[in-house]
Specification:
single chain; about 130 residues; mainly beta; 7-stranded mixed beta sheet; 4-stranded antiparallel beta sheet; about 0% helix
């Protein structure tokens, strides 16, 4: 089992920045990809970004490309999401996810991940 705990959510005005972090514990050597998803009220959970645990290759949703950056610190079992130029439409609960046996392609859907954090709220006001 892998446990994931997110932090760093909050409220910010449009154009501002936030940094989310996710710390993994437990059977972390089994992870090979970590991702961020978000879910707005009444909407389905959507892919935001993902990173390969070994090698660091990344992929982003078009809606956040150029504004968000995903990174990982293998030594600390942490993945982060730096969010800049935030927009009101970025408002959602953000979830960290970890996947096992995801090779060779980085998973872009919720079904590609095995473990989930509890989520952290991000609110962007106009």
């Amino acid at each position: 089992q892998v446990q994931l705990v997110e932090s760093g959510g909050g409220s910010v005005q449009a154009g501002g920045s936030l940094r989310l972090s996710c710390v993994a514990s437990g059977r972390t050597p089994s992870m090979d990809a970590m991702g961020w998803f978000r879910q707005a009220p009444g909407k389905e959970r959507k892919f935001v970004a993902t990173i390969r645990w070994s090698g660091g290759s990344t992929f982003y949703a078009d809606s956040v490309k150029g504004r968000f950056t995903i990174s990982r610190d293998n030594a600390k079992n942490t993945v982060s999401l730096q969010m800049n130029s935030l927009k009101p439409e970025d408002t959602a609960v953000y979830y960290c996810a970890a996947g096992e046996r995801t090779l060779p392609l980085l998973p872009l859907g919720v079904q590609g991940y095995d473990y989930w954090g509890q989520g952290t709220q991000v609110t962007v006001s106009s």
